[in-house]
């Protein structure tokens, strides 16, 4: 993540939700821990555990910010309990079992550039939510993975 110093067009919590929604229905995403981010960027995933991630839902982040601190903490705790049931770090990758809530960064960001490596499975439907909306859809609408097909290398 690299900031540009420009004023953010959405709230930091909206960005956190954006990054969170990214993995709801995916089987796995990949940001290899061995790779160092380019100069000026910082890694969102440390490659070994869920440090710096919490659970999240589709929630209007203007309303989130308006909640009393104690209410936000309680909701984040509940959502993170769900996150830990469905998300894990495995072989340097952030992996989802196909269920559960979003993975959301604990830190809020302003303007950013996001570099992502992503693995999917046949018929996957996922997204990276950029501050809650808009989203970058990640679909695989093929019938089944064919390891012999050129467009699906094993």
Q: Which terms summarize this structure?
A:
3 helices; 22% helix; alpha+beta; two-stranded antiparallel sheet; four-stranded antiparallel beta sheet; single chain; 154 residues; 8 strands; 21% strand
Give the gist of this structure.
The protein is α+β, with helices and mostly antiparallel strands and 154 residues long. 22% of the residues lie in helices and 21% in strands. The protein is globular and about 45 Å long.
Description:
The protein is of the alpha+beta class. The chain has one domain (12-139). Helix content is 22%, strand content 21%. It is built from three helices and eight strands, in the order αββααββββββ. The strands form three sheets. It has a four-stranded antiparallel beta sheet with strand order 3-4-1-6. A hairpin with a 2-residue loop joins strand 3 and strand 4. It is globular.
* Straight-line N-to-C gap: 30 Å
Secondary-structure element series: HEEHHEEEEEE
- Which structural class should the secondary elements be placed in? alpha+beta
- Average residue pLDDT: 74
Described by strand count, sense and barrel closure, the largest sheet is: 4 strands, antiparallel
Shape: globular
Radius of gyration from CA coordinates: 16 Å
**Based on DSSP secondary structure assignment, what is the total number of beta strands?**
8
List the uncertain runs.
6-10, 14-20, 22-34
Strand percent estimate: 15-25%
How many domain modules?
A: 1
Helix residue percentage: 10-25%
What is the strand arrangement across the widest sheet?
3-4-1-6
Task: Please give the count of helices.
Answer: 3
Characterize the quaternary organization of these chains: single chain
């Amino acid at each position: 993540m690299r900031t540009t110093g420009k004023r953010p067009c959405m709230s930091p919590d909206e960005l956190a939700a954006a990054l969170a929604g990214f993995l709801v229905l995916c089987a796995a995403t990949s940001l290899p821990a061995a790779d160092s981010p380019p100069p000026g960027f910082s890694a969102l995933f440390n490659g070994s555990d869920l440090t710096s991630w919490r659970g999240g839902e589709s929630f209007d982040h203007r309303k989130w910010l308006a909640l009393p601190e104690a209410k936000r903490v309680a909701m984040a705790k509940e959502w993170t309990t769900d996150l830990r049931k469905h998300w894990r770090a495995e072989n340097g990758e952030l992996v989802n079992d196909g269920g559960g809530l979003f993975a959301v960064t604990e830190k809020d960001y302003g303007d950013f550039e996001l570099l992502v490596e992503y693995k999917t499975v046949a018929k996957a439907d996922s997204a990276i939510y950029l501050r809650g909306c808009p989203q970058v859809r990640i679909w695989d609408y093929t019938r089944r993975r064919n390891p012999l097909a050129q467009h699906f290398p094993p």
